[in-house]
Amino acid sequence: MGGGGRYCSGPPFNPVPTRAGRTSRQRERMPHTTHSFVRRVLVLLLAGAIGCGSDLLLPDPPGGGQNVALTKVDGDEQTGTVGEPLLAPLIVQVLTAREQPAPGRKVAFELTSDPAAGEVSPDTAVTNDAGQATARWVLGTSPGSHVIVVRLVGGEADNQVAEFRAAAIAAAPDTLRPGSALAQAGQRKREVGTAPTVHVVDRFGNPVPNISVTWQVTSGGGKVEQTSTSTDPGGNASARWTLGDRLGFHQLTAAIGDVRGSPVTFSATVLF
């Protein structure tokens, strides 16, 4: 060993990269490597989803497209007074094929050809976020059954139709009118030949049924079979009036509270 040691030559020494060195180089390559990996994962997921066939759910088009359904929610089969709005609004809903709300769809509310059906407002509405459209119905001036047709507007949706029905009844009594002759001849202690009759109408001239009419003998000492009778579907009420045992004028009144024309006075003249 004396003067100097041996020098062993060999292949160049390549040290194993330290962990820090590997990390540094990985960081240099990370952006490219990460983006490539994400792209590969997305492609695989999309391919797998497409392969699933019916399991792939695509979002509904805005407004549900043409494949939508119209249904009634509230306001059908109401009964209201002529000339007045129905208590509940008419509400419909438009749903997609997956039964999701379809907002932004136009819905038309159409009265039938019967002018007595009244008015509807608005005549065209747009569905809200819940897929619902609303309108108010003011009944016409004639009693009876009336119909409003509701339909979707646009394209194939035109075949989506619903109907709302409402029954209109007469308003409160407004006028009491005689329905028979006001004067006639009679005999003592006999029923008059023509039964006194009155007619009750509302402010539109419609007959008002089921209204109580009060009858009262005011002269002659006679009597009526019933002191109160009700109007029939035609708005008419009558009384059976038997005259008293005296000559001269006999009188009978028919009254309904505080309405125009009340009371109506009927007379009978007894000559023998």
What can you tell me about this protein's structure?
Helices cover 12% and strands 37% of the residues. It is mostly beta strands. It has three domains: 19-50; 62-169, Immunoglobulins (Immunoglobulin-like, Sandwich); 175-270, Sandwich (Immunoglobulin-like), CATH 2.60.40. The strands form five sheets. Strands 2-9-8-4-6 form a five-stranded mixed sheet, with no helix packed on it. A five-stranded mixed sheet has the order 11-19-18-13-15, with no helix packed on it. 23% of the residues are buried. Mean pLDDT is 83; it is low at 1-38 and 41-58.
**Number of domain modules:** 3
Instruction: Tell me the helix content.
Output: 10-25%
CATH topology of the largest domain: Immunoglobulin-like
Query: What is the H-and-E element order?
Result: HEEEEEEEEEEEEEEEEEEE
**Which regions are unreliable across 5 or more consecutive residues at pLDDT < 50?**
1-38, 41-58
Beta-strand residue percentage: 35-45%
Look at the structure and give the CATH class of the largest domain: Mainly Beta
How are the strands ordered across the major sheet? 2-9-8-4-6
- Rounded to an integer in angstroms, the radius of gyration calculated over CA atoms is 44 Å
| Mean pLDDT across all amino acids | 83
The strand count comes to 19
Distance between the termini: 178 Å
Task: Provide a short characterization of the protein structure.
The protein is 12% helix and 37% strand. With 272 residues, it is mainly beta. It has three domains: 19-50; 62-169, Immunoglobulin-like (Sandwich); 175-270, Immunoglobulin-like.
Looking at this protein, list some descriptive labels.
272 residues; mainly beta; Immunoglobulin-like; 5-stranded mixed beta sheet; 1 helix; 19 strands; 12% helix; rod-shaped; disordered N terminus
